[in-house]
Amino acid sequence: MLAQEAPPADEAQPPPPEEQAPAGPALQPADLTPLICDPAVAGFRYLEVRGTGFDAWATQRLIGNVVDASGVPQIHWGSVWVTPQGRLTLEVNLCADPVQHRPALPAGDYSVSVGDTGGATIAETGISLAAPADTSGDSDIGSLVLFDNQTSDADRVYFSLN
Length: 162
Description:
Elements: E1 26-29, E2 46-52, E3 61-68, E4 73-81, E5 88-93, E6 108-115, E7 121-129, E8 143-147, E9 157-160
Antiparallel strand pairs: 1-2, 2-5, 3-4, 3-6, 6-7, 8-9
């Protein structure tokens, strides 16, 4: 084949780099911008973070950490099981944890990482916790007219989504 010729269409072409699976271990949160919990209420609302490509650590136990943007530790897992297929799952409790006696994670950026027992990071990902939208305004944006076949405003029924 000459350099100017295109390969036949029936030959398999590798996918573009952006479509290829990441090389090595990777962590992927189920939601990159979850909402914070009410800090005054203890509870359990989890963000799932899945890990793949941990084949070199299959059937071993690793450690996991969540640190805030300043590097301050927030959550620590002393034992993270890696399946024989090289996968793992972390469940990050976003709410005030009554078992660990930890406050709710406030809005902000965090790093979730998995490392070996010596402390070396193997894989890391970021999450950004967002505050819920302010719905305290007295706007009519969320109003819906249920019956609009009435002759005057006094006869209409409104439903507010606020």
